[in-house]
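Self-study notes.
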Amino acid sequence: GFVSGGCVEAAAAFEALEAIACGKDRLVKYGEGSPYFDIVLPCGGGITLAIHPLRDATPLLAVLNALSQRKAAGLRYHPATQTLQTVLPLQKTGWREDAFDVRYTPCTQVIIFGRSVEAEVTATIARAAGYDVLVNDGVNPQTV
């Protein structure tokens, strides 16, 4: 993914490698109020990035498992304890008291029935748009 559209990615990658090397979370500011005078955001604002070296993949695997079953899931990051945990699906991403919650939802799925040029074109467009596509031509249902 991207942090800012390109202007802080190299610095963020460096900070992430430093966090992994020392085994501790880092909180880094870019743009306004940052110690990096050479990184100026085009918008004139600032970005605060929390970097968490993953110590246990269990919470991420639980989210991936839920998404593969087409269910919503959530993660909660506690900066004070530097821990990550799974939580029930949340209403929205954001700060909740002393923790940051992230909501994950499965990709939109498009189900197409039929065996025609129109069905093929619709499936191609839906795939290009990043949707999960299920085509049922009456003979061989398949997820693509």
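Second protein, same conventions, sequence then structure:
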Amino acid sequence: MPLFETVLQEKPAIVLEIGTALAKLGFAGEPYPRSIIPADVVDHRDKNAGQATPTRKLFDYATEAELYDSLVDFLKTIFFKNVLVSPKERKIVVVESVLCPTIIKENLGRALFCHFDVSSVFFVPTHLVVLATLAIDTALVVDIGYKEAVVMPVFCGVQVLYAWEAQPLAAESVHTEIKRQLVESGVKEELLTEAVLEDIKIRTCFVTTLERAAKFRNEAEAAITPCPDVDYPVQGEEVIKISGRLRETAYEVMFPEDNDRLGLPYIILNAIVKCTRDMRIPLANNIVLIGGSTMVQGMAARLKSELLNLSQSDFYKDRLFVQTFRFHSPPSEANFTTWLGGSIYGATDLVLSKSITREAYSKNPTIPDFTNYEETRALQTRG
């Protein structure tokens, strides 16, 4: 019997992708996650919460012990309230960024092995497994999450770690900009909770064109016919007026114009320039957008316009050697494309040959990073 058939006949692995704001979870081999939940835990530090249950972000921790306890609490919610299976003797696939802090990866592994007694854990890199959804091995992966935007080149199935770029401007920065403009217009700050800001962003905002953005930036709004204002009801009584200017400019924080070249199109071009010349055209013609913030209307069109415009500037023209930029359309929504890649990997025999087993972890309780994975696995096997 082929090995992959044996894998599929067993209990499917549980696939987890735990981000800063949201977590996706489900079973290997399935096309959609079973649940997408906030990455929040009960905040036991808040002693004055009143009747409401205080929560905080999973990775908002002060000590390593606090991080471990938070991960245990969060995994309990995942296993016993969402996927509704016992984790004991289960295979786990964890989709994580290669840039994930070691302290998080090690405590997650310790929680899974020591507290939940899983049989194995298979760590797969976010920006690599996303390519499995498109059946390609070369792409420039642009990942816009909650805290930051990361650009990771992948060439012939290998992450080009020396060329990655990032900026600390993503969904959280958009929320901050929306809140700033609304407070300046007279909206009560207590109405603007994180959930309300997220909903306003999703329902009313979009990425405007390069030409209109330049006019807004140069304070030439008198020459612009604004998009319509909209009313947003909140708490059943209050109505917040969302101006047309806010709707168009909220996402401009991700496209700053400064001498540091830290805007989203700049870091994309910088990542390409860092790669060798033979890699640049394939990367520019295989751009993959992932993350919930890439789903906003107008994002791909604006990025293409920015990239084409900047590629003709004096700074990039003589070093980029790229004339076109093409974007892939993954077979799933951008907010869970990486989870789908983990689901695909978890349904193959790699989950047997590349996982860290409980026995190996008990001999050497170390979670390897992606740069010395094979070496650490060999040490674990020798015990």
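Instructor comment on the second fold: Confidence is low (pLDDT under 50) at residues 1-9, 372-383.
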